[in-house]
Amino acid sequence: MTERGKELLQYFRDHQQDFLNLLEALVTQETPSDNPASFSKLFAIITKEFEKIGFSVSHIEGQDTAGQLLCTPDEFNDQPPNQLVVGHCDTVWEKGTLEQMPFSVDGNEVSGPGVYDMKAGIAMMIFGVKAIKELDREMPYQPIFLINTDEEIGSNESKELIIEQAKKSARTFVLEPSLGSEGKIKTARKGIGEFEIIINGTPSHAGLAPEEGVSAILELSHVVQQLFKLNDPSSGISVNVGTIEGGERSNVIAAQSKAVIDVRIPTKMDGERIKKQIYEIEPEMEGIELNVSGGINRPPLEKGPANEQLWQATKKLGEELDMELKEGTSGGASDGNFTNLYSPTIDGLGAVGEGAHAYHEKIFLKETLKRLALFTLLLQQPTIYD
Q1: What pLDDT digit, counting tens, does each position of 228-276 carry?
Q2: Which of 37, 141, 227, 371 is a good FRET partner for 12, with 20 to 30 A between their CA atoms?
Q3: Residue 158, SS3 per DSSP
Q4: DSSP string computed for 87-128
Q5: CA geometry: angle at 279 spanning 274 and 284, to 5°?
């Protein structure tokens, strides 16, 4: 372990209780994505903490969400390139969850709704800059922190701002939780698509004239089988019919049915191919009309040459902390899927723990503080691109 690695780790250990106090304040403000009014107190906490470390915080209001916070240094000169740090403060948990899942610290485990995904990441953003300032370190690029409130529901309102800031940034760090309890860095993520197929048939009385009807439900059964044939686990491609519906009542040949499909793809090319195959599905029964809509709404995070350089730099910095970092691919998407189109991106730099979106959600404190030291070193890392 290098001397600056030791110094950073000691700093975070000395400030462990302060970190926990902030984390508790963040977690005990419940902020489900679809409840914009619930974010006001959390915004106040985040704003106060960033202002204490010399940042100005702008609130970009949303239409159907609580919007986004954009945190820039007080001396910000708006001259790219910057380094972008992205995270979200919305959770999948409804208000009232704290009654069943209270914030708690049990030895090295810190539990609570949203603690892992990803309010610990928000606390890490603040403490990383705090350490750099108090230890009198330098950063080669101005850090820009973008925190949104709709990541868990697709980032539809924040996507434009995320892309705008990524275009100005030499690199992007996403403080989503790490991959698995071993804390792998996410150097790749699958892209996500959602499709809807509506099937129109011909209704008829099921008892008096069944031969005059064309069942949209029967055709749906054929379509579902065609969709599942598109799965290719060996290539990392999954096509899942998540919901189906159809019919009016049991004594009527169904006039309409519907399937909603989730698609996960590792490459942009895979996404284009699967989309084409879904749109080209043909009905097997005469008298049926298929209407297909949807597409790939989050592109995959693919590791190109610049990303590889950023990953290698991250691994090398990990050695300064006696960390043997490993990389992995996540089947889920994040806002890193957007930033990676315009800025080399490292994802999964946030907390080490387990149980995202689950009742056993928790972080491992010692490992997370070490990950915080890694993030702080990355903020100080000079340019690494050829």
Answers
A1: 999 999 999 999 999 999 999 999 999 999 999 999 999 999 999 999 9
A2: 141
A3: coil
A4: EE--BSPPTTGGGTS--EEETTEEE-TTIIIIIHHHHHHHHH
A5: 115
What is the C-alpha separation between 23 and 362, in angstroms, rounded? 12
- Cα–Cα distances in angstroms (integers) from residue 144 to residues 82, 236, 313, 318, in the given order: 7, 33, 20, 23
Please report how many Cα atoms fall inside a 13 Å half-sphere around the Cα of residue 254, on the Cβ side: 18
Place of tokens 């800059």: 129
**310-314 contacts, C-beta under 8 A, 24 or more apart:** 310/171, 310/344, 310/345, 310/346, 310/384, 311/185, 311/187, 311/346, 312/384, 313/378, 313/381, 313/384, 314/185, 314/346, 314/374, 314/378
Q: How many CB atoms lie within 10 A of CB 125?
A: 26
How much is the pTM? 0.92
**How far is it, in rounded angstroms, from Cα 53 to Cα 45?**
13
pLDDT given at position 77: 87
- 169 forms beta bridges with 82
pLDDT digits (tens, 9 = 90+) for 33-66: 999 999 999 999 999 999 999 999 999 999 999 9
Bridge partners, residue 262, by sequence:
194, 240
Average pLDDT, stretch 18-31? 98
Q: Which of 68, 66, 59 is nearest to 87 (CA)?
A: 68
Which residues sit opposite 349 in a β-bridge? none
Q: What is the dihedral of CA 371, 377, 381, 386, to 10 degrees?
A: -30
Orientation angle between helical segments 305-319 and 365-380, nearest 10 degrees: 120
Cross-strand partners of 82: 142, 169
